[in-house]
Amino acid sequence: MGAMSARPNPEAAAQQAENTAPHRAGFACFVGRPNAGKSTLTNALVGQKVAITSNRPQTTRHTVRGIVHRPDAQLILVDTPGLHKPRTLLGERLNDVVRTTWAEVDVIGFCLPADQKLGPGDKYIVKELAGIKKTPKIAIITKSDLVESKQLAEQLLAVSRLGEELGFEWAEIIPVSAVKDDQVGLLADLIAPLLPESPPLYPEGDLTDEPEMVMVAELIREAALEGVRDELPHSIAVVVEEMLPREDRPADKPLLDIHANVYIERPSQKGIIIGPKGKRLKEVGTKSRKHIEALLGTPVFLDLHVKVAKDWQRDPKQLRKLGF
Ligand SMILES: Nc1nc2c(ncn2[C@@H]2O[C@H](COP(=O)(O)OP(=O)(O)OP(=O)(O)O)[C@@H](O)[C@H]2O)c(=O)[nH]1
Ligand SMILES: [Mg+2]
C-alpha cells in the first residue's frame, strides 16, 4: 500500500459511504386537519403540482401519491384528505381512506399549521396516531411563514408536549413553509433514513401514479372551487367522460378533445357554477385548460357540462358513480 492511499481522504470516504449506503424507498403519508397545507407540501416536495389545493377545507378527496426521486432514496408521499368529523357519507368514506392509509405507510407526517391553535381536532388525530406504535411519526409545523419566531417556538413546544402527554416521542419535529420553500428539502432529508432499504418502487421520472383522467378532473375541480362560497365547494364533483385525439388533424397540430361533467347537488346550484351568461363556467374552462395542456403537453379542446347528481355526498349509489 503506498503512502498516498494510506492518508485519510475524507472526500473519498464520503464517496464510498455514498456508494455503499443502501438505497431506501417507501411511503410517507401526510395527515392533519383540513386546510393544514398537506397537498401544498406534497407538491413542494415533488416539485410539481400532483395534488390540487385551495383555501377551502376538504379539498383533497382521495389519496394522491407524489414521488420524490433522490440518489439515495425514493420517497412516495401519500397526501390524504383532511381528517374531520364526518357529516355526510362522503365524509365517512374520506376518513376511512385516511385511516387505511396510515396503517400501511412507513412514516407518518402529522401536519399542524403554525398559525392555528393546537385544538381538539388535532388532539383527536394525534391520539389515534399514538396507537400506531410501530410507525415513526414526524410533527410538521406547516405555514411557518405566517408567524413570528416566538409563536413558532410555542407551536413546536405544544406539539412536543402533546406527544409526551400521549406517551410517545416524535421522531422529528420540524417547521416548514411550502409556499416560501423553507426547510422543504430538509424534511425530505429527515424522512429518507426512516424508509426501509429497497430499490426504487417507481420508474425514474414518474412524479405520481394518478391516472391522467383523474388529474384532469382534479384540475377542473380546482378551477371550479375558486371563488365559490359556503357549502358549494363540497357539492362539486368532476368526472372526465372521454379524452380522445381529434381525428383528421395534421401531425404537427394535434388536438385532444376532453369531455367532462361538473356535478353539483341541487338544481339551485347550477346558476352559481355557470354564472351570468355562462361567464363563470367559461372561466373555469379557460383556467383549467391551461393547466391541463401543461400537464399533458398537448393543445386541448375542453367541453364542460354542468349536471345535477341529487345529494350525491349522501347517496351510496351516486358516490360509486362519482368514483368514491
Ligand atoms: N402562507 C402559507 N400558506 C400555505 C402554505 N401551505 C399551504 N398554504 C395555504 O393553505 C391553504 C390550504 O392548503 P392545502 O394544501 O390545500 O391544504 P390541505 O391540508 O391539503 O387541505 P385538505 O385537502 O382540504 O385537507 C391553501 O390556501 C394554501 O395556499 C404555506 O407554507 N404558507
Ligand atoms: Mg389537500
From TrEMBL:
Location of the protein in the cell: Cytoplasm; Cell membrane
Region annotated G4, chain positions: 142-145
Stretches the record annotates as G1: 32-39
Amino-acid positions noted as binding GTP in the UniProt annotation, renumbered to this chain: 32-39, 79-83, 142-145
Classification via InterPro entries: G_ERA_dom, GTP-bd, GTPase_Era-like, KH_dom-like_a/b, KH_dom_type_2, KH_sf_prok-type, P-loop_NTPase, Small_GTP-bd
Domain Era-type G: 24-197
Region called G5, residue ranges: 176-178
Region listing for G3, in residue ranges: 79-82
First-listed, main subcellular location of the protein, grouped into a coarse class: cytoplasm
Region (G2): 58-62
Membrane topology, as annotated: Peripheral membrane protein
KH type-2 domain mapped to chain residues: 228-310
Source species, domain of life: Bacteria
Alphabetical UniProt keywords: Cell membrane, Cytoplasm, GTP-binding, Membrane, Nucleotide-binding, Ribosome biogenesis, RNA-binding, rRNA-binding
Keyword check for Zinc-finger: no
One family name in Pfam for this protein: MMR_HSR1
Function: An essential GTPase that binds both GDP and GTP, with rapid nucleotide exchange. Plays a role in 16S rRNA processing and 30S ribosomal subunit biogenesis and possibly also in cell cycle regulation and energy metabolism.
Similarity remark: Belongs to the TRAFAC class TrmE-Era-EngA-EngB-Septin-like GTPase superfamily. Era GTPase family.
Subunit structure: Monomer.
Name assigned to this protein: GTPase Era
